[in-house]
Amino acid sequence: MPGIEGTALVLGATSPMARWTAYALARQGWDISLAGRDVQELRRIAADLILRTGATVSVREFQAEDLESHEGFWEDCVDQMEDLRCVVCAFGFMGSQDAQNEAPALAQQVMTINYTAAGTILMHAAKHFEEQKTGWIVGISSVAGERGRASNYVYGSAKAGFTQLLSGLRARLSKSGVSVLTVKPGFVDTAMTFGKDGVFLVADPKDVGGQIVEAMTKRKDVVYIPGFWRLIMFIIRSVPEKVFKKMKF
Amino acid sequence: MHPEPSRSLPEKAAPSLTGWGGSPAGPTTLLRPEKMRDFKPGESPQIARGMGRGYGDAAICGEGHTVLTERLDRMLSFDDETGVLRAEAGVSLADILTTFVPRGWFLPVTPGTKFCSLGGCLAADVHGKNHHVDGAFSQHVTSARIIPADGAERIISPDKNSDLFWATAGGMGLTGFITEVSLKLKKIETSWMAVKHTPTKDLDQTLDFLAIDDAENPYSVAWIDCLATGEKLGRSVVMNGRHAAIGEIPLRENNKLDGSFSKQKPMPFYLPSFVLNKFTVKAFNSLFNLRQGSRGEFVTKFDPYFYPLDGIKNWGRMYGKKGFVQHQCVLPHESARDGLRAILELVTESGRASFLAVLKKFGPEGRGMLSFPTGGYTLALDFANKPGLDEFHDRLDGIVLNAGGRVYLVKDSRMKADSLPYMYPRLDEFRKVLRQYDPSGKFASDLSRRLNIAGD
Predict the structure, then answer these.
(1) Is residue A2 in some structural domain?
(2) Residue B311: inside a domain, yes or no?
(3) A204-223 b/e with 16+ CB inside 10 Å = b?
(4) CATH number at residue B226
(5) Which residues of B touch A65 (CB under 8 A)?
(6) Model pLDDT for residues A7-51, shown as the tens digit of each residue
(7) End-to-end alpha-carbon separation of chain A, Å?
(8) Which residue of A has its CA nearest to B30?
(9) Per the structure, how many domains does chain A have?
(10) What is the ipTM of this complex?
(11) Is A58 on the interface with B (CB under 8 A)?
């Protein structure tokens, strides 16, 4: 991306999708800041990124669930990275729907991580980029946010909220020159899908990372990855609720 | 604040996981840690699995956990002065080449495929075409980290915990989970190879050629036409090679240190097993000998030179759905001539077509307790899985045993347990280390059970 290099902050950077998004960004000349809860693991990913791409990479701790910490975290980021131009929000947590059905309190954690935490940190990013009149916000949502399925509806509902938040941010920020990309991955080959029944055509997180950055470069608004999920979700959205509630998946 | 989300790894049932040869194996349960701290031994029997290029059953733990290292593939540090790369066990040789060839560094030892992991390379103590000069893989490992059954990570090297290091080099993953490997890369001036092909007329000439200590060419291997009979038995194309100097390569911009690979051609389906028979392979070999033998001296890219079969994705499918076995043995110098003749005669008699037949001279034995390479000649043969293969395989092993040789465990899927102590005389030493670090046998594979590697 000529003339627009800067630092990209990747939140939840230990996920394979985030790692390979960071890799694709680094290959384009971005400096990278990897943020997440597990600093030890982030250091390994950072070392690897530096060796593979030669990029400048830093690591910072970020506790997504600790909502109180977001403001201070963001201020530190802005202070320490003058050329912060991009935020990739990649953290998420699905948990077990069965466990949440049994112990409803567990649902709160899923809602907090996937919606509240993702939303609040991006509100800070939005304000900053709006003032800077430039920037990229990339939110990794999910196709699960398009319809409530019995097997993961708490996660899906939080992702649905996140998708709408990204949509609203896009509408607000488009006049300020800030791009907002909503990424809707289908099945990606990660711990979330590993060994799960009914999982098909899983995408390699390496490829997904490349495709996310490609969509960013093209200043797309919403991207399904892999692309055929747009069609699958069109069909799933068109099923009448009467029928949908009886479907088992 | 909520408690940390659960860290237990999801399991994936693998009812018929196979090795690279495709012979049926399993069932096993797969685990795939994505973070280093999730890569630690559990209570059930388990074995690590890198890229699944072991031909047989070495990286499959039936009725237990087969733990994939593919996500533990981070390079951690590189020292420009010494060339030592420290990386996680799941890093592939292909990734190392992509990253370091453009900077003028190469693998010190590489097997015939780049799609294998550092952990796998150490566990099988792999060798390359330069074994007679540079030794096996472990000789270039400056240190490694391993988590044995007790769950405590240890640094191992020829100086530190050396018993565990030399049990791990060639130990087929049985000493614990290898987490990191530090490998000393070697400097190259270009990414090109200067190669010399020489046709030979028979086995004696082939062996004589391989025996020449050609200091200029650290890489040498012979491709045998193993269907040539009578006086032509053992006729080959001997391929010598070395890293080319700048003055020798075709001059184009940016091609001096080119880390890219040839594009893979797909093998999208299994060839019906009748396609490869002694007639078609004979035709292939004749053509190959004619073509390759007449090439003389030339310069080529490192990828087709070191990894000709990597050019075809899933090349094992050539042998049909039932898969194939690779038999690789080494015979000591004193019995090599007679032993190799006996093996080649048996192969021609049996009419079993071996598409791949590679012969090479090994240098002296390394220090790995179960390392395969030992002074002598090594022969690798592929056989399609057709009726009677077991008996045929036993006869091959018989020749190897009589010659005082051994079979390469990472290729094997059929050897008998009785043969193991004869082939690997340091087995007791290895078992002693195992008893110390894994007294209850938490690490096991179908291979270790079949051959009773851990002992009783």
Answers:
(1) no
(2) yes
(3) ebbebbbbbbebbeeeeebb
(4) 3.40.462.10
(5) 1-2
(6) 999 999 999 999 999 999 999 999 999 999 999 999 999 999 999
(7) 41
(8) A195
(9) 1
(10) 0.92
(11) no
